[in-house]
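To: structure desk
From: M.T.
Subject: fold request, one chain
Message: Could you run this one when you get a chance? Sequence is below, nothing fancy, just the single chain.
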Amino acid sequence: MDNPSPNRVRQPAAARFAAFVVVLALALAWAPLGGAMAQQAAGAKPPAVKVPNFWNVERRMERPDAARLPKTLRFVTADDYPPFNFTGAGGALAGFNVDLARAICDELGASCTIAAEPFDQIIGAVEQGRADAAIAGIAATPVSRASLEFSERYLGTPARFVGRAGAGPADATPELVASKRVGVVGRTAHEAYLRSFFNEAAIRTYADLKGAQEALRKGDIDLVFGDGITLAIWLNGTDSGGCCAFVGGPFTESRFFGDGFAVAVRAGNDGLRHAMDYALQRIWEKGIYTDLYLRWFPVSFY
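Reply: Done. Structure tokens follow.
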């Protein structure tokens, strides 16, 4: 995250598209042929990629009354945030958020429309009734909660350490990182987190993530700490040159890194918000979520 938006974690559009060209090709090649549950039933090994789970599988949610839901669910998203939502071949919307919206519609037995609007107009589209729900990485802040309600999160935005392959510490604990030179983008939540919990490390700040990544490749620093999603795209792209790998597990403290991604509906529409929660949990239980995650994130940021 170079310069976080107040409403969504983003990186410059040109950098996102350049990094994503390789990610998309590999993701399509890795697309699973069947659901995760079907794979397990067939005796296949579970996927090596770690897939996050945000749902309590023991909870049983009541199926929403279809008569109280729109027959057509109108989703709105953006088209400039790959691999979550972007304009693909032939001008069609594609990405993880787009596929997830379609899966929600299928689970609720509704037809589906997905339209793209500029990101700064998405909240207004839901507020004004031009869309029933937004699936675009809108942050649940006090300002956005004044006019929107949010489903339970379907994806987090964890922070991760990255080190040179075979040269990093065995784990990312304060004790093991204390003797390391760690690069981070200055004046970000990631720098604040390092100084709060890894303050014995030699912390070096950079103007942008690209500068920190290049310093890591050259060996000027031992680790980079930053947004896991952005780092996963870099690791899976050509810019990294296969130099590096994640070290340790994800850091998910919401007061530093936010609450993650959720579906937004208009404030007061409790029925539709409940329906989103129900559909998302069922999508997880059926293995559809795992399929989508493996397709779009072949290098997991968890």
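Reply (cont.): The chain has two domains: 13-156+258-296, 159-257. Let me know if you need anything else for the meeting.
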